Every structure is written in structure tokens, then in C-alpha cells.
Amino acid sequence: MQDAKRSALAQSFQEDGFAIARGFFPQETVAEICRRAEKILDQRSEFSPTYTNITKGLEKADGFFALLLNTGPQVSLLQELLGTRPIPATASFFTKNTTQEEVYPHIDSIYGGVIWVALDDTNRDNGCIHFLKGSHRRQAEFSYLKPHQANDLSDHPDLVEASMSAGDMLLFQSTTVHWSGPNHNGTPRRGFNCFYTGKAE
User: Fold this and answer.
1) Is the pLDDT score of 144 beyond 70?
2) How many angstroms separate the CA atoms of 7 and 123, rounded?
3) Which helix (DSSP H) or strand (DSSP E) does residue 13 occupy?
4) What CATH number should be reported for the domain whose range is 3-197?
5) For 73-96, b where at least 16 C-beta lie within 10 A, e where not — what string?
6) What is the DSSP string of 65-91?
7) How far apart are CA 174 and CA 115, in angstroms?
8) Quick check: 19 and 172 in contact, CB under 8 A?
């Protein structure tokens, strides 16, 4: 990645709380993630009553995901942006094929970073991720938010819709408010996520 792009990502990550690395993963890797994650999903027997479209712990089911979580190309970039070594927590697979599935505005934890890879093209129509720009600097203001409790922030002046193409990667601070709306048009909207802890220095 060119120095200018890395610098722009770092600036966005620090100021806005998130950044998008366009075309970060090649389509071959995207296809492999989909193939392996969908195999795990087909074999899964336990489902969360709250989020039936999220499969966590991929790294426990397939060594491919353990390797990607721990040593994938995103790790060094996230370390550069966080200013500290990312401590791997879990890898997850997201599907969103119905209009009802959504995650409400929330933050993930006190310290850490998250990467979210678009496995399909995603936009407002099929439920892309939304952010409140700069909200990572105002944690107390948004501490009441919970991912399972509805809160409408669609008119907030800091709202940003993260439209992405397959292979693009979001990197965001875990204290940045984010959510994803319903899939209105029913087109595939799959995503791969890696969550890391680690306090920024």
C-alpha cells in the first residue's frame, strides 16, 4: 500500500474513528472466505435468539480463519492505526438476506479495533454499515446505546454510510458508534469481521 494511502487511512481512523481500505483483499481471498464460512454455517446447530445472521468463532472451526485472524495482512495495518499490538479475539461471518435483520447503533468495547470485509457489494439498499463520524471521541454521550435496542440516528449530522465493494475493508475503533440497517432489496450482503482488543497508546 502506498504511503499516501496509509497516511490518509491513519488520518481518517484517528479523526473519524473509521477508515476504508479499498480493494484490500483480492477476489480469490473473498471467495475462499465465503466458501469456508458458508460451510461452517451449514454445519452450525446453535443459533443466537437475537442475531441469527451472525456466526462467531470461525477461528475455532477452521484453521484458515485462525491464521487470518492472527497473521492476516490486516493485522499490521491495524497495529499501525491503533498504535499498539492488536490482540485477536474472534472472527465472524455476517449474512443479511432479509429485510428484518439489522443491528442497532452501538459501540463494541472500551479499547480495540475491528476490521470488516465486504464479501458482496454493500450500500444503503442492502444494509451497509453506518457510522457516526467522530463519535469515538464522545463515548459518554453514546454510552446508552445497545445493539439490540432500537435507536434512530438516521438524521444525525455526523452520519456516514459506508458503501463498499467486495474486497474493501473497514477498519474502525471499537468505540465508534456503528450499526447496519435492514436489507431492503434482498441482494446478498455478506461480511467477514475480525475483532481485536488493545489500548491505543
Assistant:
1) yes
2) 25
3) helix 3-15
4) 2.60.120.620
5) ebbebbeebbebebebbebbbbbb
6) HHHHHHHSHHHHHHHHHHTS--EEEEE
7) 10
8) yes
One-letter amino acid at 123 equals N
> Which amino acid is residue 19, in one-letter code?
A
Whole-angstrom distance, CA of residue 6 vs CA of residue 21: 9
Does the structure show a pLDDT above 50 at 200?
A: no
Q: How far is CA 107 from CA 4, 50, 160, 176, in A?
A: 29, 17, 15, 6
Q: Are strands 18-21 and 54-56 parallel, antiparallel or unpaired?
A: unpaired
Question: Under DSSP, is residue 43 helix (H, G, I), strand (E, B) or coil?
Answer: helix
* CB-side neighbour CA atoms (13 Å) of 154: 7
What pTM did the predictor assign?
0.93
Q: Bridge-partner residues for 93, per DSSP?
A: 55, 192
